[in-house]
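dumping these here so i dont lose them again. two proteins, back to back, each one seq then structure tokens. dont judge the mess
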Amino acid sequence: MFGFNKKLQKEPYDRNSKKPVIHASICTGEKVAGFKDLQTGKFHEVMVIRNDSDLQFFMQKYDVMADEIVKEY
């Protein structure tokens, strides 16, 4: 099949100006992972988190540790 043998391409982000955030909806429970600009407060959406494997993929792709991620409602 396509893509199963490909190595995961890590994408760097500026750790000095952005922080990893998960936006979670209180009403629907929808979760979106992305990065928040520390100076402007603007959120840049990267991907929808449907399950734990999506979260693990986000953490591996952007080289984020679990204790770095902040959850906002």
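---- next one ----
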Amino acid sequence: MNPGIYNIIAYRNDTLQRTFTIVDSGGSPVSLATAAVKIQVRTKADGEVLWELTEGDGLTVGGAGNNVITLSKVCDITGCGVYHYDLQATFNSGVVSTYIRGAFIVQKDITK
């Protein structure tokens, strides 16, 4: 299954809050109970990691089907611009799956 595309707009120094529900192509929940889930924001696909969310550090996995991912972390990327991100799960079995990807757009905050 190809990852879904979801572009994120974040404001520098604001708390990014998003919730994703991961389902398979048939609409059934994908249990992430045995997976390590993370998001990385990079300058380009193989570029420098600018920001990372992991379980316990800005990312939680929950919900009845263990398929709801909640993000809550201050976006402290210093440079504004368009970057790239994806959400990846590595299961205990060794299977790695990317579920979401897209542009990660950081905009300047106005109010200080």
